[in-house]
Write a structure and sequence with these properties.
Largest sheet: 5 strands, antiparallel
Number of strands: 13
Strand order of the largest sheet: 5-13-10-11-12
Mean pLDDT: 85
Distance between the termini: 40 Å
Radius of gyration: 24 Å
């Protein structure tokens, strides 16, 4: 069992998904409180990965230099006799528990800071209640890239689909819900911002990820201290900051209530971005929380035009269950939506993605006609295929 767990962890790391998002019930001795859910982690335990040169050493709580520690546990001890012991992809994992009367957000983050400076410690992870985020990283690479989920691909290729990186960003979903989505991105950033330290993340992101012909990014700006308490002030602030250095053509979406903007940029815009001192973070357009390590092979597909809720699912590339096709009910719903007679209330992203049949950024009678022709077999059927289903989480409904 120990080896099986280690193999799984090693595979995750080798795949470039160095995550440690654990289910709360795995090691935590209590249900998370509302405050813990809000923080994104429980306040009772920190997971520690020991540096390779010390993984055969015996450890006690005293080795980690904090009076906050109640005890340590080593669920999967490693000895030199283990057949996988010398493999650098297998590490010693230690669970460090706080004293019962010390379990607060302040104390557990203080413990994390202490552990991050300990000579034996390679990595530290909190017991996340949902998605992981960086805590006191030492390099920008440890923060990684926070991604959006707006770039499925079509099978077969659809000539109307922008393959230059925009994906679905012109879809009515973003035109309608951009403000709420940017609020979501901003809340994700705020959850880990207190633990980022002084790392030059913005310059690193610009140097590393803006080399494509066109990139689509969300920039988080510093919150203005003297923002007037009037309607439209935040949006005016956002636009004003960006337009000092970039043209209006770069701006795709501007938040009304938080300091966040979605931009379309080219490599020529990198120097201009560097000059915007108010940028505190950059992520993928409409970025969201990072995925955990579960469901690594899980993917899915929505058929273009399939707006009434039937979904094809894939697992490791193979279709499972009965294949559902577009039918007249889909065309009727698209037409009623276009006429303002009906609107979706759940799975909003799926509806808007699948209803824009010609990818022109509108949902109208032309889409309903294409939907009906697809149902009749007169038009080619297209699939919107995406990776991890959890990355399609829709904060708008």
């Amino acid at each position: 069992m120990k080896k099986a767990v280690s193999v799984i962890l090693a595979l995750i790391m080798l795949a470039g998904i160095f995550t440690f998002s654990l289910n709360v019930s795995a090691y935590s001795e209590k249900e998370p409180t509302g405050e813990e859910l809000g923080a994104g982690f429980t306040f009772d335990v920190v997971y520690v990965i020991i540096k390779d040169e010390y993984k055969f050493r015996e450890f006690t709580a005293e080795d980690f230099g904090s009076d906050l520690i109640d005890r340590i546990e080593i669920p999967y001890p490693i000895t030199p006799e283990d057949e996988w012991a010398d493999d650098e992809d297998f590490w010693l994992e230690i669970h460090v528990y706080l004293k019962e009367n010390e379990m607060t957000k302040k104390n557990i983050t203080e413990l994390c800071r202490t552990l991050s400076k300990n000579e034996y410690v390679k990595k530290i992870f909190l017991n996340y209640t949902g998605y992981e985020f960086p805590v006191f990283p030492e390099t920008p690479e440890e923060i990684g890239v926070f991604s959006g989920a707006y770039r499925p691909y079509t099978e077969p290729e659809h000539e109307g689909y922008d393959r230059n990186g925009a994906g679905m960003l012109n879809n009515p979903y973003y035109k309608k819900y951009y403000n709420g989505l940017l609020n979501h991105s901003y809340s994700v950033y705020n959850q880990f911002a207190p633990y980022m330290g002084d790392i030059e993340y913005v310059d690193w992101f610009i140097d590393t990820y803006l080399e494509k012909e066109v990139s689509y990014i969300t920039v988080i700006l510093a919150y203005p201290e003297d923002l007037p308490d009037i309607e439209g002030a935040m949006k005016e602030y956002n636009i004003g900051i960006i337009k000092e250095h970039l043209s209006e053509e770069n701006i795709m979406y501007v938040a009304d209530t938080v300091p966040a903007v979605v931009l379309r940029v080219t490599p020529e815009d990198r120097n201009a971005l560097r000059k915007i001192d108010d940028i505190v973070f950059i992520g993928d357009a409409f970025f969201t929380s990072k995925m955990g390590g579960s469901g690594l092979a899980e993917s899915g597909v929505y058929t273009l035009g399939n707006v009434t809720g039937r979904q094809n699912e894939y697992y490791e590339g193979e279709k499972v269950g009965s294949v559902k096709f577009v039918n007249a009910a889909d065309a009727r719903l698209v037409l009623r939506f276009a006429a303002g007679l009906e609107k979706p209330e759940t799975e909003l992203k799926r509806f808007y993605y699948c209803a824009d049949m010609n990818f022109d950024g509108e949902i109208n009678s032309a889409d309903a006609r294409l939907c009906l022709r697809t149902a009749a077999g007169l038009e080619k059927e297209y699939d919107l295929t995406f990776g991890y289903k959890s990355s399609w989480y829709d904060p708008m409904g």
